[in-house]
Amino acid sequence: MKRRFLSVRFFLSLGLLFSVLFSAWSIYYKTQEWGFNLHPNQKIPVWTIESHLTFQPTGKPVEVSFARPDGTGNYKILDETVIAKGYEIKKEKNKFVIKGKDKKKQQNIYYRILVYDTMKSKGKTKAVNKPEKPALPSFSDDDVILAKEVLLKAKEEKGDIVQNLIRLLNDSEPNEAVLAFSPERKSTLETAQIIVDLLALEGIPARLIRGIVLAEGKKASKTDVLLEAYQAESNRWLTYHVRTGEYGIPESFIVLRRGDDSLVDVVGGVDSQTKYSVLKSLNSSFGMAKYRAQSAEQKQLFAYSIYSLPIAEQNALKWLMIFPLAILIVVLLRNVVGLKTMGTFTPMLISMALIETGFLPGLTAFVIVTGIGLAVRALLSRLNLLLVPRISAVVIFVIFIIQMCTIIGYRFDFKVASAVLFFPIIILAWIIERASIIWEEEGLKSALNEVFSSVSVAVITYFVIVNPTVQHIMFAFNELNLVILFVVMLLGTYTGYRLTELKRFAPLVRHKDKK
Fold first, then answer.
1. How far apart are CA 234 and CA 228, in angstroms?
2. Are 113 and 263 a contacting pair, CB within 8 Å?
3. Torsion sign across C-alpha atoms 235, 166, 255, 269
4. CA–CA separation, 35 vs 267, rounded Å?
5. Which of 51, 199, 392, 445 could form a disulfide with 206 if both were Cys (CB 3.0 to 4.6 A apart)?
6. What element of type H or E holds 356?
7. Do 454 and 427 contact (CB within 8 A), yes or no?
8. What is the DSSP letter of 70?
9. Residue 371 neighbours by CB under 8 Å, 6+ apart
10. pLDDT tens, 148-178?
């Protein structure tokens, strides 16, 4: 028998270990792939970037193209929209083509993209194919001599030649060669283009990255610029900040285009201008999970999860997911602490009812109904009724009590009275009947102790499961219920003393010490 008991505990412990490992993997997967978070109010920023193009038609057929964000950018695209009334819109791999004709008035075309989830790029983009040797820039002979002096100065300094060039061109007190080569203070775009041309003299492929720095309420007439240079040793493109020389794509930067291709092309129009604006909104992590699953090609896996269900079904399951934790608390307080309750799940049901009623109104209503019910049950005991009719009569009396409390609560606006409606009638009747039997067999004190213990366990359970963080974790990471299952079964193999029994056997320990 002992071996059998030990073997059961061994297999249950093994099951607990595997359930913990599975839960840990599942939680890691959900946080990394689907973006779940331990915090219940975690919101995911979704950025709306709008390109507003205006131009004057020339009377010829109009063709406009908007460059779509580069697929190797550090943000994911949630949605794309083109607003161009009276135009034919065609979506291609790397651009939107918009065609129309017979346009006379000034035209307004909008291209909006919604992006989310920065990938925290380290600024290293693997080259699909080795880039060709760059063409030499169209410098004059004097500019070539000065450019080579600048390159020589950059190569003499330690470190990355690209970073050295950036530092030289942005120096507040540039040397003579830099000052002669680039006499005026240049914009970020002009500085980046000069570095691309200088690197071309060295045979190093380089290109511009144009995009938008995401900032709430941002409005700009030009895009932001970064620089990429090819590193032959690792076959990668390294990204640099044009002013500071820092590596990497900033977390708040979305890439719109790499290379020399234009962002917006207009045929059949003049005086074109493009303005960019940025708007930030917040979405829940659950709401964004399906989009992450789709982008990671896990659409089918997500479709068979509870998070793909309608909101009403999810809310219903959310309460079911919290039940195992409430059960665990009851088992711990009964089997380990040693509290006596009226049944195993009565405290759990009381705590669930308290969530609906509110703590103080619900607890007050429970005490009132139970007190009146015990008084009625004491009167019925004098009639010597059989068990089933007696319990049935108690249930009917409980219904009458609830009816009266509801009417009083409505007339006098008492939340305490109306809270009675949320308590299960059968549970109330059963508690009253059970307390009455203990009263008759063991006395009033034992009956009150058992009712008090049941309510105490219910209150402890209530304060645990009412916590929003606990509710969120148990729903978002419901695989934890598998761990709870094995913990509950392992507690079923516990045969030691309960905490409340230690006081009972304390005199024996003291007697042994005296000897």
1. 14
2. no
3. negative
4. 43
5. 199
6. helix 346-357
7. no
8. P
9. none
10. 888 888 888 887 888 888 888 887 777 777 7
- Residue-wise burial string across 350-367, b where 16 or more C-beta atoms lie within 10 A, e elsewhere: bbbbbbebeeebbbbbbe
Instruction: For residue 337, name the pLDDT band (cuts at 50, 70, 90).
Output: confident
Q: What is the pTM (predicted TM-score) of this model?
A: 0.65
Say if residues 403 and 369 touch (Cβ distance below 8 Å). no
Measured between alpha carbons, how far is 377 from 167 in angstroms, rounded to an integer?
A: 90
Closest CA to 79 of 40, 50, 37, 41: 50
Query: Which of the 8 DSSP states describes residue 51?
Result: E
For residues 228 and 209, the answer to whether their CB atoms sit within 8 Å is yes
DSSP per-residue string spanning 478-492: TTHHHHHHHHHHHHT
List the one residue out of 374, 373, 420, 421 whose CA is nearest residue 397: 373
**Taking Cα atoms as reference points, which of 386, 503, 493 lies closest to residue 433?**
386
Rounded to whole angstroms, the Cα distance separating 89 from 63 reads: 10
Which pLDDT belongs to residue 110? 92
Q: What counts of helices (H) and strands (E) characterise the chain? A: 18, 14
Q: Which pair of structure tokens corresponds to residue 117?
A: 């989830």
C-alpha distances (whole Å) from 110 to each of 217, 220, 350, 464 are 17, 15, 57, 51
pLDDT at 121 over 50: no
Q: Does residue 502 or residue 107 have the better pLDDT?
A: 107
Helix axes 359-380, 346-357, angle to 10 degrees: 130
What pLDDT score was predicted for residue 403?
Answer: 79
Question: How many Å is the maximal CA-CA distance in the chain?
Answer: 120
* Helix, strand, coil percent content, the chain, rounded in steps of 5: 50, 20, 30
Contact between 254 and 112 under an 8 Å Cβ cutoff? The reply is no
Taking only Cα atoms into account, the Rg of the chain, rounded to an integer number of angstroms, comes to: 37
**Distance (Å, rounded) from C-alpha 71 to C-alpha 68?**
9
491 close to 17: Cβ distance less than 8 angstroms: no
Gap between the Cα atoms of 80 and 49, Å rounded? 10
3-state secondary structure 145-188: HHHHHHHHHHHHCCCCHHHHHHHHHCCCCCCHHHHHHCCCCCCH
Beta carbons of 20 and 483 less than 8 angstroms apart: yes
Cβ(317)–Cβ(431) under 8 Å?
no
Polymer length in residues for the chain: 515
Sign of the four-CA dihedral 489, 492, 493, 494: positive
Q: Judge contact between 513 and 350, C-beta under 8 A.
A: no
Task: Find the Cα–Cα–Cα–Cα dihedral 189, 191, 196, 197, rounded to 10°.
Answer: 120
